[in-house]
Specification:
The structure holds two protein chains of two kinds. Chain A is an alpha/beta fold. Helices cover 39% and strands 28% of the residues of chain A. Chain A has a single domain, classed as Rossmann fold (3-Layer(aba) Sandwich), CATH 3.40.50. In chain A, helix 4 (121-134) crosses helix 6 (152-166) and helix 6 (152-166) packs parallel to helix 7 (182-194). The model of chain B has no long low-confidence stretch (mean pLDDT 94). Chain B is built from ten helices and 19 strands. Classes of the chains: A alpha/beta, B alpha/beta. The A-B interface holds A 52-56, 75-77, 79-81, 85-86, 88, 91-92, 94-97, 101-102, 105-107, 109-110, 113, 145, 162, 166 and B 388-390, 392-401, 403-404, 407-408, 410-412, 414-415. The complex binds adenosine-5'-diphosphate (ADP) and magnesium ion. The site of adenosine-5'-diphosphate has 10 residues of chain A, from helix 1.
Chain lengths: 253, 441
């Protein structure tokens, strides 16, 4: 069976030639949740951006396949239409674009790219409202400009809303727990857990173990200095909480 | 400088236009004298060029190669074309007044059932009657030393006069549609006067359009006299043809405790100069002046604003935004003057340009001249390209780059469009913006 995501020997650098991803191998099958844990500055966000197709990174070696298709050959919007979703560590504020307008544009653009029929506005609004309710997002927020003036928690809930609406096949969650209090964390985790399915894979990136109490991973990877240095089960996260990352940082160096 | 400079072909042409037309231009003795004085003022300095401070980014002397002959009165064919011309405000229920090739055409205009307190008259008739109001107003109200405006005073043949009696709340907006129909390039000089009496309110929309590819020349001016405690919403949309020259002047004198909302929107024309001379003459007046420009190809659009806070407790906001693609160029010059004694003035000016290509250009020159000591005044300017981070965020959600850019452009210019209080106006401007975005793809 083809893996949902297959990363082989990936090396990536940022403008100026600084190497950030240095020999990464990772396979995510459908139905699996992988946690990637690592110290600040390890390159976790860079990995998420490289997967989502952000310009500005040079892939110097390696391959990435999504359902057997060459992901690196696609632009960011093409990847999204193929099912890649990145929940941003720092969701951006876009003044002048109403949240609902944005959701409609994204939803219908993906459908169009896949040759599917677009959803009428009333149907889409209905669907958005239903999801919003489960995430404690009030209708008023949907009319406001995207993320403008939203609290940290509201932004993360809004990312979860987008993910639930777009129904991606690969979810990459970058530090979804950062800036969340425990109640907001539970709401977001519930939203993410509701998306767990045999057809979907997830990569949950986090610095802290706390999030993984609520989104329990199948596999945990320790990511340091641009590659995976250790892999284990859910209990590895708890071990890391106790020991910290220091040993891996020196190992990788 | 000035006098000794050899006249250009266009300057000689303009002199010919005036000499040929002055005997039959409407107006009695007084108005004829005002015209002659105005033409002399123009003739001394000639067409403005970049060494004239107020025109430093728009060298009309170089850009205007010749003066086109004056448009003739519209015949039936021209009127038919005007009737079929695209109307951004169609279906909005506005009272439409139509100026075809510079001439007010009553049979195309909606003059039925005028609300009590509303008077509408062709400017040609008002000039011919030599009303003292006009002869006083034609040359005065705001400094008339601008050469383009002086030319307008000298040569204006028609336009519209709209009088709203004191206390009249005009709920139905008036749309003055200036339509150029002739593909053979001509020139048109129009002057309009809008007088809003004390305590009255009105919405006046001006639109300017014409055929693509024709190098016609428009010099249009509107005088706006707004009484105490009155409210005026004035919207001007320039969607002239692709090769047109458009010079527009707004001369506004606003009374005390009045509300002045002005919105200019440029989405057409080859060379556009939109100049606004605003005087907040009475105390406690609130002004909101916005401008939006959507430019592509080799378009050049210059908005030059001069606003004077002449009395105390006034508040003004000036917000200008330009989206500039290809090799187009946007110019914004804004000057806020606070007169001695205009204490507690609160004025904030902001201009922003969004550049869509490396060759696109935006120039901004804000100026404050403050002669009072207890005021709050400020200005700011930004110029930048589309934000790559925002673009990536939209694309990461599946929105293709062209559509993502269009969304960001809409968001940018949306702040200007939102300034229109009237929903049908906002819809029309949004339509104009979407049309512009559509043509770019
Ligand atoms: N665009 C960039 N320009 C310069 N340095 C960057 C850029 N992006 C990331 N980095 C650097 O690359 C390293 C990895 O960053 P990042 O992927 O954000 O790590 P993490 O998410 O694991 O904290 C850090 O040292 C960071 O400073
Ligand atoms: Mg990070």
């Amino acid at each position: 069976m083809t893996a949902l995501l297959e990363i082989k020997g990936l090396h990536a650098e940022i403008a100026g030639g600084r190497k950030i991803i240095q020999g990464l191998d990772l396979t995510v099958n459908k139905g699996e949740i992988h946690a990637i844990m690592g110290p600040n500055g390890a390159g976790k966000s860079t990995l998420s951006y490289v997967l989502a197709g952000k310009p500005g990174y040079e892939i110097t070696a390696g391959e990435v396949y999504l359902n057997g298709e060459d992901l690196l050959a696609m632009s960011a919007d093409e990847r999204a239409a193929k099912g890649v979703f990145l929940a941003f560590q720092y969701p951006l504020e876009i003044p002048g674009v109403a949240t609902l307008t944005f959701l409609r544009a994204a939803f219908n653009a993906q459908r169009k790219a896949r040759g599917e029929e677009e959803l009428s506005s009333p149907d889409l609004i209905k669907r958005v409202r239903e999801i919003a309710k489960t995430l404690n997002i009030d209708a008023d927020m949907l009319k406001r400009p995207l993320n403008v003036g939203f609290s940290g928690g509201e932004k993360k809930r809004n990312e979860t809303l987008q993910m639930a609406l777009l129904q991606p096949s690969l979810c990459v969650l970058d530090e979804t727990d950062s800036g969340l209090d425990i109640d907001a964390l539970k709401v977001v985790a519930n939203g993410v857990n509701a998306l767990r399915s045999a057809e979907r894979g997830m990569i949950v990136i986090t610095h802290y173990q706390r999030l993984l109490d609520y989104i329990v991973p199948d596999i945990v990877h320790v990511f340091a200095a641009g590659r995976i240095v250790r892999t284990g089960g859910a209990d590895l996260a708890r071990e890391l909480e106790a020991t910290g990352y220091a040993q891996y940082q020196s190992e990788a160096a | 400088m000035g006098v000794a400079i050899r006249k250009t072909k266009a300057e000689l042409g303009l002199a010919d236009l005036y000499q040929g037309a002055r005997r039959y231009l409407p107006g009695g003795e007084e108005i004829t004298a005002v015209r002659a004085a105005a033409f002399d003022r123009f003739n001394v300095v000639g067409l403005p060029h970049r060494r004239v401070e107020a025109w430093r980014y728009t060298d009309l002397r170089t850009q205007m190669k010749e003066a086109k002959r004056l448009a003739s009165l519209p015949d039936d064919a021209a009127k038919a074309k005007a009737r079929e011309a695209r109307d951004l405000f169609a279906g909005a229920g506005f009272r439409k007044l139509v100026i075809v090739d510079g001439a007010f055409v009553p049979e195309l205009s909606d003059l039925a059932g005028l609300e009590p307190g509303l008077t509408i008259q062709p400017m040609a008739d008002a000039l011919a009657a030599d009303k003292p109001l006009l002869s006083q107003r034609l040359g005065a109200i705001v400094p008339d030393d601008d050469p383009a405006l002086a030319l307008n005073t000298a040569l204006a043949a028609n336009g519209v006069v709209i009088l709203v009696a004191p206390g009249t709340a005009l709920s139905r907006p008036i749309h003055v549609a200036f339509v150029t129909t002739n593909w053979v390039a001509t020139s048109m000089f129009t002057r309009s006067l809008v007088n809003i009496g004390a305590g009255a309110s009105a919405t006046i929309v001006e639109s300017h359009q014409g055929p693509d590819g024709s190098e016609y020349q428009v010099n249009t001016a509107m005088q706006l006299i707004v009484g105490d405690e009155a409210r005026i919403d004035h919207i001007k949309v320039v969607s002239e043809g692709s090769s047109a020259l458009h010079i527009g002047s707004l001369l506004a004198n606003i009374g005390a405790r009045a509300t002045f909302n002005q919105l200019g929107f440029v989405a057409g024309g080859s060379l556009v100069r939109n100049q606004l001379f605003v005087r907040l003459a009475g105390e406690g007046t609130v002004a909101d002046i916005r401008g939006g420009a959507l430019l592509s190809g080799t378009q050049h659009a210059d908005t030059t604003l001069s606003i004077e806070h002449a009395a105390e407790n006034g508040q003004s906001r000036e917000t200008f935004k330009a989206v500039v693609g290809d090799t187009a160029r946007a110019v914004f010059q804004g000057k806020i003057t606070v007169a001695p004694g205009a204490q507690k003035t609160d004025a904030k000016m902001m201009s922003r340009a969004l550049l869509l290509s490396d060759e696109a250009e935006a120039d901004s020159k804000p100026e404050l001249e403050i002669f009072a000591d207890d005021v709050q005044c400020g200005h700011g300017t930004t110029t930048g390209a589309i934000d790559d981070e925002l673009l990536f965020y939209l694309m990461a959600r599946g929105i293709p780059p062209a559509e993502a850019k269009a969304l960001l452009i809409q968001a940018f210019i949306g702040e200007i469009i939102e300034g229109a209080a009237n929903e049908a106006v906002r819809d029309a401007l949004t339509g104009a913006m979407l049309g512009w975005l559509g043509r770019r793809e």
